[in-house]
Amino acid sequence: MFNIILFGPPGSGKGTQAKKLAEAFELLHISTGDLLRSEIKNGTQLGLEAKRFIDAGELVPDQVVLGMLRSAVEKYPEAKGVIYDGFPRTIVQSEAIDAMLAEDQERINVLIALAVDEEEIVQRILERAKTSGRTDDADEDTVRARIQVYKEQTAPVFDYYDRADVAYELNGMGSIDEVYARLSKLVEQAQTA
In whole angstroms, how far apart are CA 69 and each of 83, 90, 104, 113? Predict the structure, then answer.
């Protein structure tokens, strides 16, 4: 199984690119954001709890996200691989996903970080708010808080996987197709490594 972490700050294009990669490479796309939003939309206890954290621009607790992730992966044991979109976000989560994969003699094959300028990210998210219906996308202060949380808590995940020699940074600026062309080339190279 080929396991990819698509990595980058909120608004860097992870979700858009993950969907394109999943289709092209026949991989399962698991977006923790989509999983959480589904729980919120359905008004579950987990969803209500998660919404309080998200609305404050904070991360949902690890044990909640990891449980949902494990369940999602187990639903598709025939998958050729998985694109993890939005997870892991901390070193602790990185260690947890590595342990989960190791139980099945699997590992993260590549982490690809989409590098996008901060002001571009803010504008992308505020624009996305017009159609997403996400309250955390509509407020610039919340958006900037999410970016700061990313810098403090999530960015070190890149170094964690870089020490395992599987982390790559990719220019996430440009059109969706331009970024996808760079990304798919890197995925092809990683699959043959």
Answer: 12, 15, 15, 20
